[in-house]
């Protein structure tokens, strides 16, 4: 009994001392914070007044955070808050109420320097050798962040200002109130010739880690995002966003994060994505993230819905003995027409108006191990059921079977028209070309063209492996089918839209057997660029060798096959004496040996071949030095988008 009384007296004495010296302790903490900010971030914090009211209520006046030799980063005229006493006893801070009256945070960048750059520098702890536990780390960080979100909040006259080398935008929080787990926010957004009022409203419970919020325009108009337009040449906006966090909790050593997000009428405009606005009417992401000791994964029970397209993704990253990246995607059986109708407007403009019958399902399995880069797993499987195109959109694939006019686009400029048919005296049927041409080009560019259905999984594997190893897009995986579709039906624009359309159109062309392989190859040889303003094999034969396509020997066909990826830069393959350099000669020998192994040629085919000699008008170009701008992309290019 005596021990309990002594312990009680000690606790009471501690509370009395804490209450008596709380303001002195507060000033000591402020001084320590100021010293740390000055040492680590070269910033000074100043507080005109800081005092406790009662045991847990704190009031601050005139708070400023100013980096050395830079603009003020933070200013708050008045801040009142309360903290959890029991959390303070164990060294943590949990805010109860928060009231802010007037102030701002401003991010200013002039040239390469900013008033916030010191806070972006990594502060690595080199003293700790323990492995990071992802689940515990993320749970600890999220807990502290949630504790800093008050359960009762009132903010008035506070603004976030951004000035990025004259690109200015101000987010003025006219109202930010959280009471009884209900959040209501009104934000006035202002930039150059732009002004909108946004709202964030809904349910928010930081202690139970739950939220259900809606982000919209107060007038019901489309929200347009300023700043990023000038910064990234990206125009984007949306009607509304709904965010839901249902669960954020540890379970058997794993952190589980569950909820969903949805967006209505999203639009994006960027020249690298598409030439027009890309519009997604409805999109929803139901997520279930699982974070373990050494892995982060998006569980396969998650779903992504894009209009009527619904897929089940699985994404994971494991960092144990090896770093392993995995992706699985499954689209359950759906109608082909529902898929076409659900494609984002502006991203697949050649499919707009297309109609189809039948259905399909799709699955993708990808896995990459950084210690086994050559063992990439890439399995893409599409299972069609009675798919038939009943009406084409802008890209009428049937035109490839009849005469048509082709016009290349070079650097955005439409080139001269080329009639692909017997009405053009330069048009050359496949049967009237040197047999070596097909053998050399297919060996160099697409050996399995006659048997594949538009895509080669092995090539995708090699491409992915090399791109990950080099940490850049260093190799493409195009086939002749893809190059043909790009040249005949699309453009050479370097956009995501063009690449996605190319993939889908190739599938339709090849798997619906719209054209024979022979017809596709014949059109390909008659339209691809083979030099400066040289289109088709007839022009190329005359330009380089003053010959007809059927008279070309194996050396000449090997040369033509080599220059397909960069026809305008053919001069780089020759030395000052107009002879092939060692590199192209080595490639030529490699291709010849490959054709020998595949029984495409015999020793008789190479008898009597003379060294390559450029006799046509091309010889006048040999003294010119090719530039990067001369490069073209009418084949399986090494640096294709």
What would your notes on this structure say?
The protein is α+β, with helices and mostly antiparallel strands. Among the domains are: 206 residues, no CATH class; 203 residues, Penicillin binding protein transpeptidase fold (Orthogonal Bundle). It is built from 14 helices and 27 strands. The strands form 4 sheets. The chain has a 21-stranded mixed beta sheet that branches. A two-stranded antiparallel ribbon has the order 22-25. The longest helix is centred in the first third of the chain and has 20 residues.
Which helices and strands, and how do they pair?
Elements: H1 2-20, H2 22-41, E1 43-53, E2 57-67, E3 74-83, H3 85-89, E4 95-110, E5 113-114, H4 134-148, E6 152-164, E7 167-179, E8 182-191, E9 194-205, E10 210-217, E11 223-224, H5 228-232, E12 235-238, E13 240-251, E14 254-269, E15 278-291, E16 295-298, E17 303-306, E18 309-319, E19 323-335, H6 336-342, E20 355-369, E21 377-391, E22 404-406, E23 409-410, E24 413-414, E25 418-420, H7 435-445, H8 457-470, H9 480-489, H10 496-511, H11 517-527, E26 529-531, E27 534-535, H12 536-545, H13 554-563, H14 582-597
Parallel strand pairs: 4-6
Antiparallel strand pairs: 1-2, 2-3, 3-4, 4-5, 6-7, 7-8, 8-9, 9-10, 10-13, 11-12, 12-14, 13-14, 14-15, 15-16, 15-17, 16-18, 17-18, 18-19, 19-20, 20-21, 22-25, 23-24, 26-27
